[in-house]
Specification:
The complex is a heterodimer of chains A (278) and B (290). With 278 residues, chain A is mostly helical. Chain A is 66% helix and 3% strand. Chain A contains eleven helices and two strands; from the N terminus they run αααααββαααααα. The longest helix of chain A has 31 residues. In chain B, strand 10 and strand 11 form a beta hairpin. Classes of the chains: A mainly alpha (278), B alpha/beta (290).
């Protein structure tokens, strides 16, 4: 017998990594989620100020340093960019076609300009760095910490009657239910297949109709789960965020101050450099 | 039981997430046979691979290696063979009531036959017949399946598979979550289908009692492999090994072991109440005669 004679793994929905979090124990992982969110905002702002090659290089250096410290594999980062290829290609083409300036060469009705190419490169680099920066946040912060951080940062909005706690709770519950629902979908698909359902035949309309036997039970079970969860929370006296305390309270530490200071310095540096025209 | 197997696995292996750190061998070199018209119980602890195994039987999962043969033909051979086996080997999942979706019970039961591209008359005949087998009363057919009770929903879901008139009916924990009366009734209905159509029935369960009551043969799975395969009597005589696999032997067999300790020897392996009664009466009569 040989179980080792593999014939390719089954492509079940479960295999999709939805939770993007890669657990680790680096400084970046340990940073307060609030710090990471704020640093990301500063980083994105700086990215939009960056104009010149030098400033772009500076930003790239910061990103590379962060990736290196977090020990997230570069291949993982690049894989995450795949869905963006189309967006990048499209914006590049549009930029090349519609930017006026010093012509590099002409072809039929298309004139490619120096400025166009420059713009295309700049925008592409900006998108890639933007997305990679956001990945740094979601790859190194668990979803729970992320929502907690958001809740704390949005805390002042409570004064404006924004239901901050409720929003955060909804978000963490949604995150919690995603894997469960995926598993459920898998099961329902199998069950309907066992009754002879086929999902990959027919025209678009037929294919859409074929989704009904999956969607109806899925929605019903999602509602059922939500209902059960609400009852269970009520039974444990949940009544919103008022006077609610946490088991693990977040505390800003020295490293958080340093991270914030450093990113502020980079933002300032980028603004100064761009204004000096470097 | 000497007939040719209708369904058979050949060195079946299944590995989940092969080549990743989460690699897990769920089914390891499994060779089982299902004979036409028999009742077979597959027993095993949670995670012993029984659910993965049965999903191979109608090509819902492709084997990592090995083959599944229906009437001697590899079921994963082509799209047509897969379609054919889905009609011939009916699979009822755990908690099947969660897959109901149609507006009426009738339409839901008709989903399978419709997918088989049968004529309207034949569909109608099968829906009514399947409803009868599964114990769904006629007056429920035009109701919405979502208004029914849990037990009724389960029956509708089982009827939905029976309506395909499978030659092998595989049920994964068909009685889970039902009360004792409901469990018995559903099993009686399934056995009715077995008796009247001669279809083979494969029940996956971890209840030894139920396996013993209905099955003519039992397969015990342990960590992805077949640990035992034989008549209930034979399987239950290996009480210690079963316990080591996290399985319980039937209460009556436990009683027999206790009696044995007291010096009361019963014949064979006793695993039903009826058998225990007969054995004890036999002993009693023998004692009186002596």
């Amino acid at each position: 017998m040989n179980c080792s004679a593999l014939r390719g793994g089954a492509a079940v929905l479960k295999d999709i990594t939805l939770g993007q979090y890669f657990p680790g124990d680096t400084v970046i992982h340990r940073l307060d989620p609030r710090t990471k969110i704020l640093v990301l905002i500063v980083y994105i702002t700086a990215l939009f100020f960056a104009e010149t090659p030098v400033t772009y290089a500076l930003m790239a250096l910061c990103l590379a340093a962060a990736i290196w410290i977090s020990r997230i594999k570069l291949s993982v980062m690049v894989r995450g960019l795949k869905p963006l290829v189309l967006v990048i290609v499209l914006t590049s083409i549009l930029n090349i076609l519609y930017t006026k300036g010093e012509p590099l060469f002409s072809f039929w009705i298309i004139t490619v300009t120096r400025e166009g190419v420059m713009n295309a490169v700049k925008i592409s680099v900006r998108i890639i760095m933007l997305v990679m920066g956001t990945f740094m946040l979601t790859y190194t912060t668990s979803p729970i910490m992320l929502t907690y951080g958001l809740e704390l940062l949005m805390g002042p909005l409570k004064k404006l009657k924004v239901p901050v706690h409720e929003l955060a709770m909804m978000m963490s519950m949604a995150l919690r239910l995603i894997p469960t629902l995926i598993e459920e979908t898998d099961k329902i698909i199998s069950a309907q297949k066992a009754r002879g359902a086929e999902f990959d035949t027919g025209n678009l309309f037929e294919k859409a109709r074929a989704m009904l036997p999956i969607l109806v039970p899925l929605f019903i079970s999602a509602f059922r789960r939500a209902d059960e969860l609400a009852t269970a929370m009520e039974a444990r006296c949940y009544h919103g965020g008022e006077n609610r305390t946490r088991l693990n309270v977040l505390k800003l530490r020295l490293r958080d101050g340093m991270a914030l200071g450093l990113s502020a310095a980079v933002l300032g540096g980028v603004i100064v450099l761009v204004n000096m025209g470097i | 039981m000497e007939s040719n197997p209708i369904l058979r696995t050949e060195n079946l292996c299944h590995v989940y997430s092969a080549g990743t750190p989460f690699e897990l061998t769920a089914v390891r070199d499994v060779n089982i046979e299902v004979h036409a018209g028999e009742v077979l119980a597959i027993i095993g602890h949670t995670g012993s691979g029984k659910s993965t195994l049965i999903q191979h039987l109608n090509a819902l999962i492709k084997p990592t290696s090995g083959r599944v043969l229906y009437e001697g033909r590899d079921i994963n051979e082509s799209k047509d063979s897969i379609r054919a086996v889905r009609g011939n080997v009916g699979l009822v999942f755990q908690y099947p009531e969660y897959q109901l979706f149609e507006e009426t019970v009738y339409k839901d039961i008709a989903f399978g036959p419709k997918n088989m591209k049968l004529g309207a008359q034949e569909i109608d005949r099968r829906v009514r017949e399947a409803a009868g087998f599964a114990g769904v009363p006629e007056e429920l057919l035009e109701r919405s399946p979502f208004e029914l009770s849990g037990g009724q929903k389960r029956r509708v879901a089982i009827a939905g598979v029976i309506a395909m008139m499978p030659r092998v009916l595989v049920l994964d924990e068909p009685m889970a979550g039902l009360d004792p009366a409901g469990r018995r009734d559903i099993m009686e209905n399934i056995m009715g289908y077995h008796r009247e159509t001669g279809a083979a029935v494969v029940i996956v369960t971890h209840s030894m009692e139920e396996a013993a009551r209905y099955a003519g043969r039992m397969i015990v799975m342990d960590r992805g492999s077949v640990a035992m395969d034989g008549a209930p009597e034979e399987v239950f005589s290996h009480g210690e090994e079963l316990r080591a696999m996290g399985l319980e032997i039937p209460e009556m067999t436990k009683l027999q072991i206790e009696l044995q300790k007291l010096g009361i020897e019963l014949r064979g392996t006793v695993y039903t109440l009826e058998r225990m009664r007969d054995e004890l009466l036999r002993l009693e009569r023998g004692r009186r005669r002596a």
